[in-house]
Specification:
By secondary structure, the chain is an alpha+beta fold. It has two helices and five strands; from the N terminus they run αβββαββ.
Length: 115
């Protein structure tokens, strides 16, 4: 079973540099950091869940106009069947010069049962 982190990295590959958790190299003018938020069995009512929901936050950083990065990222997410649960401009970081925009994405995965 693939997970949301793997799918996000594949879907967004090539758009801008992407890291999980924290950007470990010298930061470019635009980049994305993916942070896992949750994985749960919210969609079950019996003893064994059939589905798992996974959620992650994409933190978009841009030193210029962040709108193109935001719009492209939203389009890629929707084209790859992610559900966007929240979007928010978090502000301009005066100490680094980056605009910070967050997008929370969710996807539902089938849970394979052992027989």
């Amino acid at each position: 079973m693939s997970g949301i982190l793997e799918e996000l990295n594949v879907a967004l590959n090539g758009s801008v540099p992407i890291e999980t958790g924290v950007f470990s190299e010298a930061a470019p003018d635009e980049y994305i950091v993916i942070t896992p938020l949750s994985d749960n069995f919210a969609l079950h009512a019996n003893d064994r869940p059939d589905y798992e929901t996974q959620e992650a936050r994409l933190s978009l950083y841009s030193k210029g106009n962040y709108l193109a990065l935001k719009n492209n990222t939203v389009e890629v997410l929707l084209d790859n069947d992610f559900t966007i649960t929240a979007r928010q401009y978090l502000g301009h970081e005066d100490d680094t010069g980056y605009h910070h925009y967050a997008i929370d994405a969710m996807k539902v995965y089938s849970v394979l049962h052992k027989v």
